[in-house]
Amino acid sequence: MTVATASQAGPSRQSAADSSALTPGPTSYHESSQFRHWRYSPAGLADIRQELNQRSVEVVTKNTALEKEAQISLGHTYTEPPAPASYLTVSDELLLLRFYCSQVSKICRQGFGLPEVVESTAISYLKRFYLKNSVMEWHPKNIMPTCLFLAAKTTNYPVLLDQFIPRFSKLTPADVLDTEFLVAQSLGFEFWVRGAEKALRGWGLDMQNQPNPPLEGISKSLPTALSNLSASLLTDAEFIYTPSQIGLAAWHLADPSLVETFLDHRYSTYVPSKNTSTSADDAVVNGSAGDFDPNGTSSNDSAEGNSGESQSEGEEMYGMKQSRLLHIVSDIEKMIKDGQVEVDVKKVKEVDKRLKQCSNPEKIPGTALYVKRKREKEAAEASAKAAKHQKLASASASDGDIFGSALSAPPPLLSISNSTSSSVISPRLTQIKSEQDNGNESADGRKPLSPRQRLSVNGSAAQVREGVDMTKDV
Amino acid sequence: MDLAARENGQRAERWNKGIKIGEGTFANVYKGTEKATGRKVAIKKIKVGEMKDGLDMTALREVKFLQELHHPNIIALLDVFSVKQNVNLVLEFLDTDLEAVIRDKALIFQNADIKSWMAMSLRGLEYIHRHGVLHRDLKPNNLLISANGELKIADFGLAREFGDAGSKMTCQVITRWYRPPELLFGSRFYSTAVDMWSIGTIFVELILRVPFLAGETDIDQLKKTFHAMGTPTEQEWPGYTKLPDYHDVGAYPKNPWWNMISSIGKEGQDLARDMLKFDPLTRPSAKQALQHRFFSSYPRPTAPKALPKPLAELRPRELAPDETKGKPLLAPSGNGPMKRKAESPQAAGRNVARKLVFA
């Protein structure tokens, strides 16, 4: 896949990284990584998946051939596998993904009793992962537990690996640990997923905030709305719509008239607000940051339009016309209904069977190609290490020459700890430190600095202390 | 190559890693530069290779929140990339921290300076709270200062989201000297007021130039707090004797403790007293604190550039006790063995506050 396609997903990394240029949006959702990097048009999603699928077919074809060579070179008699009936199509991949997403819910609810936030986050991770990887390269049966394990940690409900592993059949700790990093990397290290549950409950509160609130109707349809929400997790809704739109759709599907009456009320009573509340007081408070919500925190925040609509915000209720909002809601409802259809397990098994013949041999432990790649990698790392040592050795050798021949009394190496000058970053110290690193290689380079060194290094910058801080975590 | 790996490679390419400037068991910090601009950055390399339970939760938390929070008074996470099994956080480079500034006896603070630091801390905190996050480890140490004097809140290793009614939170957070009484009494349901207490103690520390409530143990922390301010009455803090870990630490008389910070002026004293109210529900929010008269009355806060700063930027300083001491306190089992708990200074160290204050 080309880079251009990848960055179509949202604003480029570059601009997002430059936080000073990032003006706070009208709500915290607009500043979230989810809004910035994980929203797509339906066509964009289809393109990404098509391209991933195509590329994987090429890779698998190539690697199957390489596997044959590798086996022969190892002296194995290579038995030609039955030719892949056909590679997986995008919809095959999605079927499998959908099946494993539904497994996450089952495991969470029956296995661990983990709260819903873990479940929905894990499912989002799984879906995001397969926007960067193909099922043919990484089988979801291995990735799903990893997503769950990671999501439990990022949502503050960590499960110890020792307690996690036995809940799955045929899962080893290595299966999770080996892929955890891959998953984190595929997620772009963006772990905060804004689920729609809070939005859904927020709508529930908003709907109570109207004349003659239909309290009975609200509490009666809440369970249905929540179950609609669960079904939405199995769809692409979160990639296309905002949490508040999905939450509203979940209510609307449960009881259309409840939502429509409420929206009629909201739209008919809406008075556009003017952003003119800058008293002298606020000026002091805001300073140069200027990041205060000029309207105060309003409950209307819960419903934002798509990025296109956010411009017209403040002029219209929820940033868009009622008809448009209802149109979006009905689109989401169609997706939710799709999500409610049970996965055909027979079909899943059929796809899985075909997948066995067209998985990337490079990624399956035990294949000749896997062994070969591992050896290559180890060799490359070893030579890189050797090169580094060489470099350090020659650096320290030449270092002495830079300043000419040694003086009769060489200066004390660590005198900086007593001086007030900013000489911590002198080449001399660097050299000492790198020498020490070398010496420690066998002990994994983890030997702490001597107190004296630590003091001197510590004074250099605030970040240093951060580094030292980490010693607290064992 | 996988798409994710390729994207990662492109990100890694943007940065030059320079010399190591700090070393810890689980992270090293390097000086670095952005290749395109030459801008100075700090690269925090978290080692994750041999963790028994995979990626470290502190690191995950830090990354999770810094990815979402973008504000002039919060340290900026510029990028995340990985090399082999290490996570690298690219952070903006900051020269020093408020702790170093407070301890530098060569510096003299004006009230306008203190006001400026307080305003910047509260602005950052207001943003954090507005985004549904509790910091849970505010202390001068974690308030970093940039080259142009701007204060930036850092270290989100203990942060978490809040607002899920009914979800219990751990009370083992916030470094002891800055920990509010409700946490010392074991409250498992709390909110933004815990961070406000920390800011309140930091405010007093900026005025006194020594930690305000420097307890040697958790019990001692309560004693010192009540000794300074008087044991709370039921009226002042309704229902606090019902908190899970409540115990009687003795009845101390009410004490007009704010007299010792009279130099900050009446408005400042008033704000400090507000932020250090025993009843969490009566403490002001960060936003309310910013709207306090203290910030709109004379003198105007000092511009960040003009704030006092240690003269020698890279001057070595003594480590705070909690940086040199001990291993993390880990929960014995079950509940959250992988979670980091707040580290608190032990008995020895800078225990001078009492004498100075109440002599």
From TrEMBL, chain A:
Keywords: Cyclin. The keyword S-adenosyl-L-methionine does not apply. Residues 1-32, 428-441 have a biased composition (Polar residues). It holds the Pfam family Cyclin_C_2. GO terms for biological process: regulation of transcription by RNA polymerase II. Residues 102-185 form the Cyclin-like domain. Residues 1-34, 274-318, 381-474 are annotated as: Disordered. SUPFAM superfamilies: Cyclin-like. InterPro entries: Cyclin-like_dom, Cyclin-like_sf, Cyclin/Ssn8, Cyclin_C_2, Cyclin_N. The keyword Glycoprotein does not apply. Residues 302-311, 414-427 have a biased composition (Low complexity). Coiled coil: none annotated. GO terms for molecular function: cyclin-dependent protein serine/threonine kinase regulator activity. Belongs to the cyclin family. PANTHER family: CYCLIN. This is Cyclin-like domain-containing protein. It comes from Kwoniella heveanensis BCC8398.
Automatic annotation (TrEMBL), chain B:
One of its GO terms (biological process) is positive regulation of transcription elongation by RNA polymerase II. The keyword DNA damage does not apply. Pfam families: Pkinase. The active site is at residue 137. Residues 300-311 have a biased composition (Low complexity). Its EC number is 2.7.11.23. Residues 300-353 are annotated as: Disordered. This is [RNA-polymerase]-subunit kinase. InterPro entries: CDK (IPR050108), CDK7 (IPR037770), Kinase-like_dom_sf (IPR011009), Prot_kinase_dom (IPR000719), Protein_kinase_ATP_BS (IPR017441), Ser/Thr_kinase_AS (IPR008271). Residues 15-295 form the Protein kinase domain. The lineage of its organism: Eukaryota, Fungi, Dikarya, Basidiomycota, Agaricomycotina.
